[in-house]
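[job 0417] fold request received: Probable imidazolonepropionase
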Amino acid sequence: IVTINTNGKNYKNGVESKEIGLFEEYSILIADGVISQIIPNSKLSEIKYDKKIDLTDKIIMPGLVECHTHTVFAGSRAKEFNMRLNGKSYEEIAMAGGGINSTVKSVRESGFEELVNISKPRIENFIRQGVTTLEIKSGYGLSFYDEIKLLEVVNKLDSLYPIDIIPTFLGAHTFPPEYINDKEKYIDIIINEMLPYISEKKLAKSCDGFCELTAFSTKQIEKIFIAAADSNLNLKLHTDQFNSIGGLELALEMGAKSVDHLEVLSDVDKVANSETVAVLLPGVSFSLQYNYAPARKLLDNNAIVALSTDYNPGSSHINNISNIWGLAAFKMSMKMEEIITAYTINSAKALGISEAVGSIEVGKSADFSIYNAKEYSELLYNFGNNLNVTTIKSGKVAQKSAPILQVRDETNYTANRDKDTIPNNNCSKPKVLTGVNVLENRNFDILENKRVGLITNQTGVNNILISTIDILNNSPNVNLVALFGPEHGVRGDVEGGEYIKFYTDTTTNLPVYSLYGKTRKPNADMLKNIDVLVYDIQDIGVRSYTFISTMGLAMEAASENGIEFVVLDRPNPLGGIKIEGNIVEEDYISFIGQFPIPYVYGLTCGELAKLIVGENFIKTKPNFKLNIVSMENWERKMDWEETGLNWIPTSPHIPHSFSPYFYPMTGILGELRNLISIGVGYTLPFQIIGAEWINSKKLTDKLNSFNLPGISFIPITFKPYYAFGKGKYLSGSQIIISDFNLTNLTEVQFYILFALKELYPDKNLFNLSSKNEIGMFNKAIGTDKIVKYYNDNLSISEVVKFLNKDLSKFKEVSEKYYLYY
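[job 0417] inference complete; emitting structure tokens
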């Protein structure tokens, strides 16, 4: 065990950096994700515990801390790399339109979800190398909207991964092209717009800047840092990379947590004996073929030295930590012990978190990087190769790279701990098995010797993405005779709202009957050669999404024709806890509100099927047989990421696993489709509201004044590619979710509606809408009372009261049909 024991000091400087606290033949005890004891193996028999992980012939080190990265970016700068190979300097490339601003352009053109998705493999690569804490800077947006977007992306990524991902605000990275001749204006935006918003929404832990001749001057950085300190942000500074212009001295004077780069540092005494960490970035020096920071002099003069990759698209496109270790040793004369210290406790110190992570000491988080090596010197000996086999964060496996953990159940270790704190040899929660997987594992027992009709679409796949159509069609003991397609068709290739006619599926040569055309309920002719009707479609947990209407009407038809009905159950992407919105009134039952349930109903499709039959929402015969093939391992509290399942777009405007979060926030407003845009036709469907006549700042300020739990709004200007506003610049607000569990999704659109009414009293949306649009709006919400409240000038609080009036009763009824808890 490499402990990096600091005896409470929480950093190591100078000669102490070589003292890494080796323990051999010891065990670490974990309780509630925290190290509770470190004891000799000889005393282990005296301790009671749940599980034991055997790490014979392995090295345990503190989880690695990446304290300086730019991991969230878009685009490629490979051409610039080639320019450097041909002798061009960093400054020359920037003057030619490359450098930071090249990435800024790509980031501005990228949507939130695109940035999330392209960042995921990078983060997973870091975790595979033993990283348990990862700092990520903004700095590639350089506008209010795009800097906030980047920080929101970082915060989203933090929610998706078990490791700690720490956001740093780097709005002062360089000056954006539009302010190159008005630099003070951009600084004013940073100080008076970006920083207050970031502080209010708690989007970042630190503020960074780039103090350099080609970037920000010392005086400019000082103004920004004063404002950042007033906003309770830690300070960090890129400085002394190409020129020494006073940034180092400023950072030390203002108590910065770290000074980063230091390639041209000439006077190490300025950093020596300071508690400001010198973060060195040898990957940059290697990539630019430039000076290496004077690590040896800094260490010999008692400085606190940390290392990081500075992973970014330009000057250090390197995210191989082992290579950084090699460069630190061969180019900067650092010893392996100093390198380990620099990548653990001192990197944690650079982020201001070394009291909690960075060393293996009692009371600290159980963050470990486990290596397939007998001695720590093998890590450098094998530089360039990743010897990490398992990464553990807070006592739970974050990444398992090889099957090395042997876990044995033991007697209980009684330290007030969760039984699951120490991971088992599966190393992660099992993936959810959907109904089709469970049925497949049962060899389709309930379908054997029966003629099967299948209601499905492109979302009907098993855990390895094979279509349920093909699974049943290729099974020797299943006789699949017909397919039935909902809205968007059996293969999901039809635009929403378009009627679909009968056709033959070219893959299977089976007849496909449309349930979104003239007939929305299977008739006797369609069912005459069928013994059992199977339903396998992923819905989104919202009443107006028509798949559940298809399911209910098909169940009714099956009962009328003496046919068994089977539901292959799937997760509700909104979970099984959230229930919101009013019950549909009888006069407003329609295909987008077929049953008297809330707008967000908190049930899986299998549970909903049971409720529909059990509460007599459809007419069924006494002998009607409903069979639910339940999932395995799903829990009501799960979000989609926790299921381990891939998200297949349920329709063209629900492309991502988080898209269902936004659909109930704006979907009903979308029925007023000739007056406002809800992002359909743009890259953010259901996430934005906009029109040419909206002032984005006024609307955003108004919406934020409601202080709605779990969400905030930021201004946006966008140009739809199709649908309302095609080719025009629309202004409005984008919804940002900070805590899904706190948010009442359904209420959001009505706060938007009433905010627009207050800001634009001459724009009565219902007076300006057609009779058909108002009719669809009422059908979507299941009542005409919202329109009446709006026109009668009732307050939004009255609307909210109306929306919530039936929820407790529905919850009590629906719990009878729960299949999962």
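[job 0417] notes: Residues 401-430 have pLDDT under 50 and may be disordered. The radius of gyration is 30 Å.
[job 0417] exit 0
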